Amino acid sequence: MKAMILAAGFGTRLFPLTIDRTKPAIPFLGKPLVGYVAEYLAKFGFKDVVVNLHHQPDSVIKALGDGNNFGVRINYTLEEPKILGTAGALDNARELLENDTFLIANGKIITDIDISEALETHKNSGAIATMILKPNTKREKFTEVEVKDGFIKGFGDYAHPFTASEIRDTTGKLTTPLMFTGIHILEPRVFDYIPRGVYSDIVPTFYNPAIKNGEKIAAHVTDANWFELSTIPRYLDISLAMMNGDNVFKGGNCRISQHSTVRDSVIWDNVEIADNTSLYRTIIADGVKIESGEHFENAALVRADMVRNCDEIPEKALKGYIQGDNYIVPL
To answer: Which end of the chain is less enclosed by CB atoms within 10 A, N or C?
Structure first.
């Protein structure tokens, strides 16, 4: 069975960490984020993987290569001149996927969801597709997925603390909304719903029409660990949570003075931190120099010249400012 990793997105909410690479190519505790996804799929026997590209495609190719270092074989598909959306990405890879059941995984997640259990759910359901869902216990801003008797019936609004769709079970306890993990299993018949040359997401193109037509869309619900690294604060929080008790991650070729204080921080490659500096809850990107006496807290830093030379700052990016040779984004 083949798998597809979605890696074409822009990563605007992670800017400026994505200024010179796309979101799945950013480093995460010593590996490219998309490399974790490839290794995760390989663990469940997926050896042939399709990876779609659009924004800064070379950064993903540099991160993954032919896939050998992550236990997979990779075919790349390029989306140009415009990004195609999930449905368009499938259409663009149709010839690579249409002969058997296949799996799609988002390229920006870290998880230990048991795919073999989800495949069993899919096989036993007789469904055209199975979406892997997770209880949204923190009621984060993810679309609610409506499920009845093990099958998906539709999609609601974003979850929030006072959502109108909130209901109580027979004991009077408030139910927890379900959210999509970005992992789903699809039968080749999904391509009957996807036109050639489409620029669209998969929900309006496939899922909504399929549900309307009475197709079975199975729901596999899991409580496994799952993290999505779509914003800078999430990136920092999840990195710190996965450091196994350490409070600083240091990349390669870094020079950090013994007379500096660094706590709860993620440091990429080729970073210099001088004497009498203090860093707390920071992300320090490649090539940044922290001068003597500087103090940063709850911030992400990249080299200022990278921001000066970029075409534009994305609208969804957190606001930052230039200080000396660095561009600082308060979190």
So the answer is: N
Higher pLDDT among residues 79 and 245, named by residue = 79
**Rounded (10°) angle between helices 57-64 and 33-43:** 50
pTM beyond 0.90: yes
Residue 169 contacts by C-beta under 8 Å, 6 or more apart in sequence? 175
Per the prediction, the chain carries an average pLDDT of: 94
Cβ atoms < 10 Å from Cβ of 236: 21
Tens of pLDDT, residues 282-318: 999 999 999 999 999 999 999 999 999 998 999 999 9
**Closest Cα partner for 295 from 272, 277, 313?**
277
Q: Cβ(102)–Cβ(186) under 8 Å?
A: yes
The fraction of the chain above a pLDDT of 90, given in percent, is 90
Domain extents in the chain: 2-228, 246-330
pLDDT at residue 175 in the model: 76
Query: What is the dotted CATH code of the domain comprising 2-228?
Result: 3.90.550.10
Rounded-to-integer distance, Cα 145 and Cα 159, Å: 10
Task: Collect all residues with Cβ–Cβ distance below 8 Å to 319 and sequence separation of at least 6.
Answer: 329, 330
Q: Is the dihedral of CA 269, 22, 179, 94 positive or negative?
A: negative
Cβ count within 10 A of residue 149? 6
Tell me the C-alpha distance between 139 and 132, whole Å: 17
Cα separation, 281 vs 235, in Å, equals 11
pLDDT at 165 > cutoff 70: no
